[in-house]
Specification:
The chain is α+β, with helices and mostly antiparallel strands. Helix content is 19%, strand content 44%. The chain is globular and about 50 Å long. Pfam families: Glyoxalase. It comes from Humitalea rosea. This is VOC domain-containing protein.
């Protein structure tokens, strides 16, 4: 891929029920799902209007036995996977999967920041640019949000490793600041302090939908749970934070048509 170091290039769902997940996200986000022949863990691709946005795989049994839960993870492009992994570990992060080749696809590693937020780094082999993160395109990711236990440390870590910079700040009262992130002057997402007693540090991804109320109905009808929203955010659009029927947290963002 020709994406720059620090770009989000892929999103991946680890789930306990592939068929149910495909049905759910097809109804909520509009994705079509297709199997990858011969791939491990029943890997599937999620796409929309001819563009691939992400994938899903069955949560490995060893991960589930170790306490792993269904969830979404993001892939961040790097120039050199081995060098990036070594730098992240040296900066206090952790390595969950060492640099590994996927034949014909690229090289990746699964890592965690010093506070425990998990992500992948990857260097792809294919020509072209990933549009998995494409604000404004329906069905693509519009926003990458990190909830962490140490916001200043996380900002310093990701800034050093991927070149991300601080943008605007939105005060959130007792919850502290919602710190926007930019990458090459493009809004990438934000970092916030995780709520006291809430989930462990983690990334959450918001996917674009054409009608936020239709998405809300689909979440409810297909067995998901809405934890927050629809609520309006700057720009006259609305967001929902929810979980799918298997418990994976996700977000959707879009306009209100009614």
């Amino acid at each position: 891929m020709t994406n720059r170091h620090g770009d989000f290039i892929w999103y991946e769902l680890l789930t306990s029920d592939q068929d149910a997940a495909a049905t759910f996200y097809g109804a909520v986000v509009g994705w079509q799902s297709r199997a990858v022949e011969g791939a491990a863990h029943g890997y599937r691709i999620f796409g929309i209007a001819g563009a691939d946005v992400g994938g899903s795989m069955t949560l490995p049994a060893e991960a589930a036995q170790a306490g792993g839960r269904p969830g979404w993870l993001g892939y961040i492009a790097v120039d050199d996977v081995d060098a990036a992994a070594a730098a992240i570990v040296a900066a206090g992060g952790a390595q969950h999967i060492p640099p590994t080749d996927i034949p014909g696809i690229g090289r990746f590693a699964m890592l965690a920041d010093p506070q425990g937020g998990i992500f992948y780094v990857m260097r792809g082999m294919a020509a072209g640019t990933s549009t998995a993160f494409a604000p404004g395109m329906v069905g693509h990711c519009h926003w990458n949000e990190l909830a962490t236990s140490d916001q200043p440390a996380a900002l310093a870590f990701y800034g050093t490793q991927f070149g991300w910079r601080k943008g605007d700040v939105m005060p959130m009262g007792e919850m502290g600041d919602y710190q926007f992130l930019t990458h090459h002057d493009v809004g990438l997402g934000a970092v916030m302090t995780r709520p006291e007693g809430g989930p462990s540090p983690m990334w959450r991804f918001y996917f674009g939908v054409p009608d936020i109320d239709a998405a809300a109905r689909a979440i409810d009808e297909k067995g998901g749970t809405i934890h927050h929203g629809p609520s309006e955010v700057p720009g006259g659009i609305f967001v929902i934070v929810g979980s799918d029927p298997q418990g994976a947290m996700f977000g959707v963002v879009g306009p209100r048509k009614a």
